[in-house]
Amino acid sequence: MLNIRNLSKTYGKHAALRNVSLHAGEGEVFGLLGPNGAGKTTLLRIIATLLRPSSGTAELAGHDVTRDPEAVRRVIGVVNGGMGLPARLTGREVLRSFAGLYGMSKAQADARITELDVALDLGRALDARAGEYSTGMKQKVVIARAVIHDPQVLILDEAASGLDIFARRTLLDFVAAARQPGKLTLYSTHVMSEAEEVCDRVAILHQGELVTVGPIPEILARTGERNLERAFFTLVRGAEAQTAAAAVAHAS
Ligand SMILES: Nc1ncnc2c1ncn2[C@@H]1O[C@H](COP(=O)(O)OP(=O)(O)OP(=O)(O)O)[C@@H](O)[C@H]1O
């Protein structure tokens, strides 16, 4: 469902992504992991058609993100850090207006809002104005808005960041429930325990390069570590040692 081949992105002289290739399939929650600056947001923005790659290709649900961005936009829902809500509207008004943009009738919108109220515990946020929301209420409505049209692919970039344990639990349960045939969820985080809980397979990025990709149990077995955080350090240190050795070889 997602095929990325030799994808690179440079900002000026800075390479944010270098030659990344990976595949994610239907029915998966696929994690993108890495520390600050690893390139997760850049990669997700390219997939969401918000940025163009410098080279390489990305194809989602059979559509090339550069050649056919409109088709890609129709199958995705996106949540990223910078999303706001109109302060004077209630959650219900925001969701109804987005449903309208997707061509849903009022009855369809209200049925979907009821489903999302249960799944995301929207509660009070539905009838309170967005300007009065807590961080958790805001993020839940932002997520509900991203999935109002029941997209085939859900892209969540650091979606749990800043949430308290209740809101975070709701989000992780929602992501786990999104694991359905025909659907793909892309979940970026730098919190390894979150990925361990919800992701089937993960890609680890470091300084714009793909360090590894695979099912979590396989990564643990390969590194001999007991959790993903330890495996992450082992893999990243290995990658850094290789880079340093290559630089020494190049200089001599
Ligand atoms: N618009 C931009 N102009 C210049 N450099 C950028 C731009 N956006 C990102 N970068 C750089 O590209 C690299 C990758 O950034 P990116 O935001 O993709 O990483 P990330 O893994 O999502 O990190 P974080 O968790 O901090 O969001 C970083 O070194 C960042 O400083």
Short description:
This protein is an alpha/beta fold and 252 residues long. The chain has nine helices and ten strands. The chain has one domain: 3-Layer(aba) Sandwich (Rossmann fold).
Features:
ATP binding; AAA+_ATPase; 252 residues; nucleotide-binding; alpha/beta; transport; 42% helix; ATP-binding
Tell me about this structure:
The chain has 252 residues and is α/β, with parallel strands linked by helices. The protein has one domain: Rossmann fold (3-Layer(aba) Sandwich). 42% of the residues lie in helices and 25% in strands. It has helices at 40-47, 69-75, 91-101, 106-120, 135-146, 165-177, 192-198, 216-223, 228-251; strands at residues 2-11, 14-24, 28-33, 55-60, 63-64, 76-79, 153-157, 184-189, 201-206, 209-215. Helix 4 crosses helix 5 and helix 8 packs across helix 9. It binds adenosine-5'-triphosphate. Adenosine-5'-triphosphate binds at residues 11, 14, 16, 34, 36-42, 190. Residues 2-232 form the ABC transporter domain. This is Sodium transport system ATP-binding protein.
